[in-house]
Amino acid sequence: MSLFSKLFKLFLAVVLLPLVPMVLLLAYYQEHLKDNILETHANLAQIVSSSMNQHIEDLGWRLSFASHVTDALNAKKDPVPVLRDALSANPDFVMLAVLSPEGKELFRAGDKQILRDVPALDLSGDPALAEISKKPRLSVSSFDVVDGRPISEFIYPLPNGDFLYGIMSFFGFLSRMQEQRIGVTGRIYLVDQNGEVFADEYQYRPAFDADSLKNAFASGKRLLKNLKTPQEAYVGAYATTPILGAYVAVLQLKGEAYRSIYYTNIILALFVLTIATLSYFGALTFAERLGEPIGALSEAAKEVSAGNLEGKIDEDIGWGEFKGLISQFNKMTADLKDYQVLQLQAQVSEMKEHVFRAVAHDLRAPLLGLQGYLYILQSGKASKEEEKEYLAQMSRAARDLSSLLEDVLDVSRVQAGMLSPRKEDVDGADLAKSVTETLAPTAAEKGLLLETDVPPLRFSADPKLIRRVLMNLVSNAIKFTDKGHVRVCGGRDANGCWLAVEDSGIGMSEQDMKGLFQKYHQINSDKPGYGLGLFISRQIVTAHGGTLDVTSRPGKGSRFTVTFPKESK
Q: Element (H or E) spanning 176, and its range?
């Protein structure tokens, strides 16, 4: 994770975590605020319902003309004029009629259209008449719609046993009710138990689904929290009315009813977005301020880890404690460099002394032998056959001296960067065969099987240098193998050509293989040699752009593999 990401998350955590309880509290408050808004709608619906109840109760004094109807009936007079006067005095009355005690119509008066639409009344089969007769009271029926007007029937018992029947229109009441507004979209509606809204063509008719309102009434929950229509959603509340099967519903668009809450949410979202933006740029600024010195220290630490102590960090990029840290880091690298130089000088001095001792020791033996053989030959006391043997020994000593000096010179050339291969087309099979034929007598002396398994393999290399590498590897294999075999093999794969020397010798552990290709490194000091062969071999292979690797197991033998890269065409 980057420094910027960590700082950004830290800033957000520090700033936003305290907001979590506030947001939870606000969410809790908003739920209650929504309920309070709906409670306001419910109270308004209840007020309208109470007004309707008062409107119906006013029928008591509005029916004062009933006594005049009774007087006319007792006097055997026509009560229709009295009914007409009552209709004129009460615009909400659409029709009035007198029914016999059995419920049959005796007289009627009213609007001509209503009189045509309403047939002769016969309520003789209605059990409610008997109940009204036993306990004289005003009875009001449920709503009905005639000519688009919501109406309700009422029956009032007369003292002489007859009944006063009337049809009362709630159109005026409904018009006054629908004139009321809550905001822009909030209205009051008179709804029947099936969810149908009472409204004529001049009044606003909402796009409610009747089934939605019917289900809401059936649920018994007076608060309507989400009443959906095909286009929009409404909220509100309802209340029952004194009219059987009728409800007063107060409904408002959800967006408008909860507008203040939505504004609060928008402000909160903008606030959180502002915090996130400030945190982002704050983290970015701090990351840049922190990242430059930290990045410089990180890169410098990598260089130090890789052994490069020459680099120095510019102290001007630091600030505060970073400046002191960079200064101390530069001082540390300078001290390490001085220590490294002193250590290297000590190692070189020790190595030189070791090499000089080893070379002096190895040079002394053949030189003393040469001097001894020369003294004997000069004395003239040796026989012909002894002279021949002494000359052979002197030749062998001279070859050992030459090999030692060549190794020392090769190391010097490698260190001076003067090892440059002269590449030409080389046959790997011929090269391997030449090496094994040269070293076959040495292998035969130890009873080892020396063989080659290299197919025709052509690559570009310096034949003299590669032969030197194979000679070193094969001679080492013979040196460290007491029984079994030494094999030279080769092949080609996707990465290029390879030659390998494997043996069944003593093998090496992982610890033994550490530093195997370094100068003067010897695993077994009792074996002859100077620890230069593998170092020189790897340098030769590296100069060709290849690799020299080893795999080995103690007691199971070793395998040295030389790989030459695939040449680009």
A: helix 171-178
Burial of 91 (0-12, 13-18, 19+ CB in 10 A): exposed
Cβ-contact 63, 164 below 8 angstroms? yes
Within 13 Å, how many C-alpha atoms sit on residue 196's CB side?
A: 11
Compute how many other C-beta atoms are within 10 angstroms of the C-beta atom of residue 422.
9
Q: Which amino acid is at 128?
A: A
Distance CA 265, CA 259 (A): 10
What pLDDT sits at residue 409?
A: 58
Sheet holding 105-110, edge to edge: 105-110, 93-99, 163-169, 149-157, 139-146
Q: Tell me what the pLDDT averaged over the chain comes to.
A: 77
Which has the closest alpha carbon to 325: 306, 307, 300?
Answer: 300
Q: Where are the beta strands (DSSP E) in 193-299?
A: 223-228, 233-240, 246-253
Residue 505 and residue 477 in contact, taking contact as beta carbons nearer than 8 Å? yes
Task: Identify whether the C-beta of residue 501 lies closer than 8 Å to the C-beta of residue 474.
Answer: yes
Select the highest-mean-pLDDT range: 60-64, 159-163, 216-220, 519-523.
159-163
Give the percent of the chain with pLDDT over 90.
9
Angle made by CA atoms 215, 219, 221, in degrees to the nearest 5: 120
* Chain segment 481-522, per-residue pLDDT in tens: 989 999 999 998 888 899 999 999 888 888 777 767 776 656
Using CA atoms, how far apart are residues 112 and 116, in angstroms rounded to an integer? 6
Query: Exposure pattern of 239-275 as b/e (b: 16+ CB <10 Å)?
Result: bbbebeebbbbbbbbbebbbeebeeeeeeeeeeeeeb
| SS3 per residue for 22-53 | HHHHHHHHHHHHHHHHHHHHHHHHHHHHHHHH
pTM score, whole prediction: 0.43
Question: What element of type H or E holds 552?
Answer: strand 547-553
Give pLDDT, residue 316: 63
Spatial separation of the C-alpha atoms in residues 110 and 100, rounded to whole Å? 18
